[in-house]
Write a structure and sequence with these properties.
The protein contains twelve helices and 24 strands. By secondary structure, the chain is α+β, with helices and mostly antiparallel strands. Among the domains are: 95 residues, 3-Layer(aba) Sandwich (Rossmann fold); 70 residues, Dna Ligase, domain 1, CATH 3.30.1490.
């Protein structure tokens, strides 16, 4: 089978690495890819939002399955474009259409969806420029801290946790009036702050059948001990010790099943990933957000723990034959540490030569490119290093031993990925 994977980050490198292991994979192309991906697949210099060129490539290269990595092509309607073409609609795709991608593309839609189907989530109201006075009045009634969420896509940066009323009022004005996050904040959710421990659960579904992938915990803040600014993610760990079988059964019964049933009731076809960002509050799961794709850097840890032929599961998803499929998970721990450019998530420079000495841990490329034969930095998050081990400690040691061998000017990374999980029992 010929497969096209869309995307260029660490998530896509991990997916490409896993897909390529399958005996079902004859040829794997990735668009637009990166230098790390080019080591395991053929890359096509086609932007992820160039639907016309992606469609032509599928026909020219006799692609049977398209796997969509990032959210933007989904929200913009890549599946819808393919389904509108008599030839392209024959190509199976892992990734929802525009209607399903609203789960991620609109925080307001997803919140109302959760409320309609009794899915546990935080209380919230939605504010527009016309209802800004209502929002400012509502803030005065809220307990601190207060969460503000841009309705649309904001590159993972559209969620603010405000510690004071004054800060919340100023940020709400900046988001709604000044469009701090562009069109993404033309609507803003004012949401109740939930106190607990975050984790992510990932589901692959064809709309009827589903498999639950290994859960993960990511680390959003730039600094150790969860300090500093929010980022796209500075590390991820899988499994998560407090995600016991009993807790995950609650997630399946109270969240996954009602979500899929809600999509069916609203006649929204859905073939792809559902990323469920959760908060465990006194061992009870609440949904913080949905995403219509896998997470980054969680995918790097999750793929490293999957023993099954993952492409076989993706094919079943694309062909609507996922019911009854079983996924095998390695009884090992995975720790991913992200190496970022100095200054990230603020201003940072690109083009720094990378000294990449191999280690035991696996290195996934995110923001890299080649200058001639020299690998250089080309983004905020540059590399993800994934260590494996029979224990969390072993996985941490392997990851950080390899991290210590990688150098470029200004490189920054957290030193505490996974440290907070040592206090609980390891149940996986």
């Amino acid at each position: 089978m010929n497969v096209l994977l869309i995307g260029s980050g660490g998530r896509e490198h991990a997916l490409a690495w896993k897909i390529k292991q399958s005996p079902w994979c004859d040829q794997l192309w990735v668009a637009p890819g990166n230098p790390g991906i080019a080591e395991v697949a053929e890359v096509l210099s086609i932007p992820a939002l160039d639907f016309v060129s992606l469609g032509k490539a599928c026909l020219e290269k006799e692609i049977s399955l398209v796997v969509v990595g990032p959210e933007a092509p989904l929200v913009e309607g890549l599946r819808d474009y393919f389904e509108s073409d008599p030839l392209l609609r024959q190509v199976a795709m892992v990734g929802p259409g525009k209607a399903g991608a609203q789960l991620e593309g609109s925080k307001d839609f997803s919140k109302q969806f959760m409320l309609r189907y009794g899915i546990p989530t935080a209380k919230a109201i939605t504010i527009t420029p016309d209802t800004l006075p209502t929002g400012l009045a509502y803030l005065k009634q809220c307990s601190l801290p207060i969460v503000l969420k841009a309705d649309g896509l904001a590159a993972g940066k559209g969620v603010l946790i405000c510690q004071t009323l004054r800060e919340a009022e100023a940020e709400l004005r900046a988001m709604v009036e000044d469009q701090k996050f562009g069109a993404a904040s033309s609507k803003v959710l004012i949401e109740e702050f939930l106190s607990g421990i975050e984790l992510s659960v990932f589901v692959l579904t064809d709309g009827e059948g589903y498999v639950i992938l290994p859960e993960a915990k990511d680390y959003k803040r730039i600094g150790d001990h969860d300090t500093g600014l929010n980022t796209g993610g500075m590390g991820a760990v899988s499994p998560v010790p407090f995600a016991t079988p009993a807790f995950l059964k609650k997630v399946e019964d109270r969240i996954i099943k009602p979500t899929l049933e809600g999509l069916r009731k609203e006649q929204i076809p859905y073939q792809g990933f559902i990323f469920i960002g959760l908060m465990s509050v006194n061992d009870e799961p609440y949904v913080i957000e949905y995403n219509a794709r896998m997470g980054d850097p969680e995918t790097q840890s999750v793929m490293s723990r999957i023993e099954s032929d993952f492409l076989e599961l993706l094919i079943a998803c694309g062909n609507k034959s996922l019911a009854g499929k079983v996924i095998k998970i390695k009884n090992e721990h995975a720790v991913t540490v992200v190496l970022a450019s100095g200054g990230y998530p603020g201003e940072f420079s690109k083009g720094h030569p990378i000294e990449l000495t191999p280690g035991e841990a696996r290195v996934f490329h995110a923001g890299t490119r080649l200058r001639g034969t020299q690998l250089i930095t080309d983004g905020g998050r540059v590399l993800g290093v994934t260590g494996m081990g029979h224990t969390l400690t072993e996985a941490q040691k392997q990851a950080y031993a390899t991290v210590s061998k990688i150098r470029w000017e200004g490189v920054t990374f957290r030193l505490d990925i996974g440290n907070d999980l040592h206090s609980g029992p390891i149940t996986k």
